[in-house]
Model the fold of this input.
Amino acid sequence: MTDGPDFGFVLPHWLYWTWLVVMPLVLIYWANHQKNQKEQAGNHADSAALLQGDEAGTALVYKENTFTRLIDKISVASGYLCAFWTVNAVGAYFYEVIMRYLFNMPTIWVHEASFLLFGMQYLISGAFTLKEEGHVRVDVLYIKLPPRGRIGMDIFTSVFFFVFVLALVGTSSTFFEQSYQMNETTVETWGIQYWPVKAMMVLGGILIFFAGISKLTKDIMTFRAMKQGA
Done:
């Protein structure tokens, strides 16, 4: 008989994956329901056009169509998913602190569950970040261009963006296929399946690819409209 700590409850693998799927969907539905109630109460401001303000305070109105609005909604939904997932990590670490220091029952799964969660958040949040213009950009020259010049620069540099994204999707697909075939698991004591994380690499690449298509479409439409003086 040993005097080591009792690890107590160990979260089942199936429960972990099921919760990550169901929990954000329920909260997204709740958030949309709350938003619709506010709209019906007359507190909704028209957001048909995407406004992107620059540092000089000038608002640039991007042209949109049905396709870009649909892709943008998907990108926003992926951002909501990542945001709601963060609640899980906060709750899990709170549980770990309580069990470890009050009951001397440290877990063998909380750190790994949160580590995997953060990794998946990073992978699928790229589309939302791109939509919100949140990616890091070297703007030494970019910020000095007029609005139409900036859009033209975005159109030109999109070539390099799509090369990167297609490479990401291609290599991620290979990693996922290999991981799934061998039923790869993590090397820690919990030993949870690792292939779903690599599947998120593929999903994240696909999401950011379509987000890039949406941005490029809006850039081209806006570039043409500005040329015509619209």
Notes: The chain has six helices and two strands. The first strand starts at residue 50 and ends at 53. The two ends are 80 Å apart (CA to CA). Residues 66-101 form the longest helix (36 residues).
